[in-house]
UniProtKB/TrEMBL annotation:
Classification via InterPro entries: Acylphosphatase-like_dom_sf, BLUF_domain
Pfam assignment, any one: BLUF
GO molecular function, a single term: blue light photoreceptor activity
Identification of the protein by name: Sensors of blue-light using FAD
Domain (BLUF): residue spans on this chain: 1-91
PROSITE patterns hit by this protein: BLUF
Organism: Fulvimarina manganoxydans
Stored SUPFAM superfamilies: Acylphosphatase/BLUF domain-like
Length: 141
């Protein structure tokens, strides 16, 4: 099994168009035994995909080549013992929250490079969304 997380920019993509893309991706991903989550806010995408490595080896290059987004940056790419996201869908959290969840997963299985432990990241992720946004704002200042 493989865990892959990326972030990208899609400044010209609207919410309705993005939701239509996700509806089609949900069907495709189910057929490929791929689970995950995706967040889209203010033109920023962050997505975690998990599933059989051979299926992600085909899907990831297709996503990276999609002209509807740019500035793609890989956050994590690792082998995992099991899928943590059995289904696939959009979540109503910030893209940063998805990225932090990916880092925590990779740290938990020992493939990450972060010096902050998963427990610290879990504290941030379990905070109410308003608190997380306050932390983001404070960090940006």
């Amino acid at each position: 099994m493989r865990h892959y997380c990326y972030t990208s920019l899609a400044p010209d993509l609207g919410d309705a168009e993005f939701e239509a893309i996700i509806a089609r991706a949900h069907q495709r991903n189910r057929a490929l035994a791929i689970g995950g989550i995706v967040s889209f806010r203010n033109g920023v995408i962050c997505q975690i995909l998990e599933g059989p490595a051979k299926n992600l080896e085909v899907l990831v290059p297709v996503i990276l080549a999609d002209p509807r987004h740019c500035g793609v940056a890989t956050i994590s790419d690792a082998r995992i013992p099991a899928i943590g996201f059995a289904d696939f869908g959009m979540v109503r959290v910030s893209p940063l929250d998805v990225a932090l969840r990916s880092i925590a997963i990779i740290d938990r299985i020992g493939a990450g490079r972060s010096k902050s432990g998963p427990a610290q990241l879990d504290l941030v992720l379990s905070a109410p969304p308003r608190s997380v946004h306050l932390l983001q704002s404070a960090g940006a200042a």
